[in-house]
Amino acid sequence: MVCGAARIVTVNPENGSLTPVVEGLQHVRSVAADKDGNIFVGIGDPENQVKVFDKAGKALRAIGKAGGRNLEGAWDKAGLRFVAGLKIDSRGKLWVMECDDSPKRISVWDGQTGAFERELFGPTSYGAGGGAICPADPYTVIGHCCEWKIAPDSGKAECVAVIRRIRWANARFGTGKAGRVYAAAGGGWAPHYPVNIFERLAAGKWKLRTTISTDEEDPTKGQPVHITVWADRNDDEKQQPEEVKKYDMALGAWLDGWYLYFNQAMTFSGTDYRIDVTGWTPCGAPEYDLAKATKLPAPVDPPGMGRGGMGAQKDLVSEDGKYVLYNGFYGVEHSDFSCLDVKSGKLVFAYPNNYVGVHGGHLAPPAKRGLIRGAYDIVGTVAMPAPLDNLFVIGTDKGEWHLLSSSGYYVSSLFEGDTMKIKWPDEAVPGANMNTVPPGMGAEDFGGSAILAKDGAMYVQHGKTA
How far apart, in whole angstroms, are the C-alpha atoms of residue 101 and residue 130? Predict the structure, then answer.
């Protein structure tokens, strides 16, 4: 057993006496033993290894790279971090549970030689938020602060890098100047967390470029005010005073909620404004001058009624910036999605949005073609070729997603919301037909994202804990 965090002892079961076996250790986190009595000891910082001793306490070897893997940057599977639990199986394999969220990992090692054998990842956080698909390569995805590469033949994912250890509840990709690839990451809907924009320079290589944050809220309205925008100019990823601009303005909502209101053109919405990129710094950081933000037209609603709520923000601007789709009123039985032309302010269409949100969805009837029930929010928007044009992707609590076009057509549902019609594919492999499965467990599947990839196809990410 571990005695404190510095020594390993054996316990006499009859009288409870302790006999030291290994002493002089530091930061012991866990211990296990194999059938021969060899002792495996998980050590924390700064060693981040598993030390192996024989039953007499003689040091035999260390498992894992000395010092462990780096907390950020390129993934090193041979390095351990945050060792929390050890187990030796019947084949002599050492299983190491690591208490980490970026990523969540169990690693397997040869107990006799210390050689790395394999690693297992997952699951996601509850509801599977924070995932996004790279438009330049749909087999590259991000989630849990990490970049992943999916094998097209098997569907198995490998960790490529830890991008940045920040609060990461939502993420979206965008394409910037000269086709450069960016990703925005937000912290979720309570409270108003900063939104960080990274540039992907190459596989596993990222740099923080821009941050939009608020340090004060209007206590009477719960709205963010005093907005700070930092855009890196000298490529050092650090804020200097001349790189920061402050704005005393109330956006009316925030840029992040159930989803991140950021499209592939790198335009933010979700608030009373459309916030476009207004310039680029010498190192490629997008600049957002809020003084130039476009005030969005809004539907005429009953007094005291506010669009969104309970994590859903107000709206999402289409990929081409011409249209804005507004959420319904949270928790009500009958509301709508209202789409307005940004330039003219005219209502383009309204589509029924019923039994809104998780709580409204408690009263929802069974699934029916064209019926949007239990909608959380607007997952995203993609620009498809004519006649589809702009599509808005709607996620719901009930097992189906929906596609609405900016011209006012209900285009299609995605996935199966009728529990009596769910049919799972025989194998979980690329190419499996997902039309008859729900996007998770059919309730509180909060996450999800959508992207139009370079190959012209729309890809979506979804799941409860996957």
Answer: 13
